[in-house]
Structure prediction request, 541 residues.
Amino acid sequence: MRLPQTDASQLLRASVVGAVLAAVLLGLVLAAMLLPARSAAGSDLRLIHSERSLYRQVLVYQDAEDRCLCFTRECAIGRQSCMDLRSPERLVFQYTQMMLGALYLNPQPRRILIIGLGGGTLPTTLERLLPQADIDVVEIDPAVVRVAQQYFGFHADAHVHVIVQDGRVYVRRALRSGERYQLIMLDAYDSQYIPEHLLTREFLSEVRSLLTPDGIVAANTFSSSRLYQNESVTYAAVFGPFYNLKSGNRVILAANGPLPSLQQVASNERRFRDVFRSYGFAARAVLARFSTRVDWDPHARVLTDQYSPANLLNSLGH
Amino acid sequence: MYRVLLYLIAGWSGFFVMGVELLGGRLLAPYFGSSIYVWGALITVFMLALSIGYLCGGWVSLHSPSLRRLALMLVAAALTTLPIVLYGDPLLERLSAAIADPRFGSLAGAALLFFVPTVISGMISPYAVRLLVADLRGAGEKAGRLYFVSTFGSAAGTLATSFYLVLYLGVNQILWLMLAVSVIVGASAWVRPVRALEGPGEADHAGETVNAGEAAKAGGAGA
Prediction:
């Protein structure tokens, strides 16, 4: 038979259990915080800059060859932008190479809008490629602009203008003031977080309205997860058929007018062979990725301002 | 039943407020972005509206309080969200064109769309406390239980909206759904006491009697 316990011993037992639970919880949290730091230290990557901005952590890692901008400590998967320290004009990421595939659709854009700055690889490269072009870069986070300037050789000048603003707010303003662009690049999404108001039918319609009749949109997005289906039908709903380029990332190239034929695209590609070789990649390899095959469920739900659970869909897997 | 309806109104109202607040962020984003200041503007409006609602609810409870009037408040809060569904987009469109600074644009937008329904929602808790309290000694306990139900409803509304509802329904569909639930809950509270207790003057008194009875029961069970 159990003896009745006193209130005091019950209280004591409860507080001991509580303390043990709290200690275990604290231990788990600490372990979770330390683990990614150790995995980053496992390679020869070292952290050379770290700051917490209004929106995220902005980290700059560097090893013997590359310097990378990351928004998470797990830099291996969350790299936003990388620069080869010995040849800074080399395009380290395949996605930036694929984004330049937009030039196969319209080789001489004079007005360019880029939403999402990152390390500034795209505006820096485009300025070098097209010295006559006017490039507007919209970036929401002033810390990213600072870091791009300080660590990635990005600089605003007479041809490159930086606007610190929400991308959607800028697009709507630009529409009202009658601006038009021949090339709009959307590079505001990453695997950790998608600004959901920048991935809806309404937003893409606004982007389309901001294009000249021969204007092109290039979007750096995702190639996996359930979101692939919704993203695809949303672009198709606004632009009709588009070119889909895939490697680790996914790049969508769409046109305001009729989509240029693969023949036209291939003939434009020749103009860039030499210059892209000097950036460390083959223009042909990008061309080989162009596809119009519908490899998604055409009945998936279109993302709209009313229905935009992009981050939830992205985290739900296939 | 009287008390169940009372708690149901308070709990649902908590759910409703947080559901509308989260969806408010969605509605503002296309026009002002989804930056921290947009959420700041939205939360400011909701807190301010709730604080004024508490004051008003307290005042109103001084004059012949009844479950029926509480039900009316719930329905009124729901109906005043109709302009959000019907005129939200054109209004925000104009505001974003007129006000250059997205901080004050979103503050103005949030105030115009969400202030009135949230003031009315805020009135519900103090008013419900008045209907629950039968004696001074139990007042704190009754108020505590009501806050529990109402804030628990808010937690449920936050989770349900942000985890699940947005995955299946559009913003306006969710608003219509919540509006319908408010009308149903309000109507059932309106219909119920009318049969049991007649006349607006007596509702107050009758409510207290029922409460006293149930309080005694609760006391008996606890002993």
In short: Chain A has two domains: 46-84, 94-315. The interface with chain B takes residues 54-55, 140, 165-166, 168-169, 172, 176, 195-197, 200, 202-203, 304-309, 312-313 of chain A (CB under 8 Å). The two ends of chain A are 56 Å apart (CA to CA). Residues 36-42 of chain A have pLDDT under 50 and may be disordered.
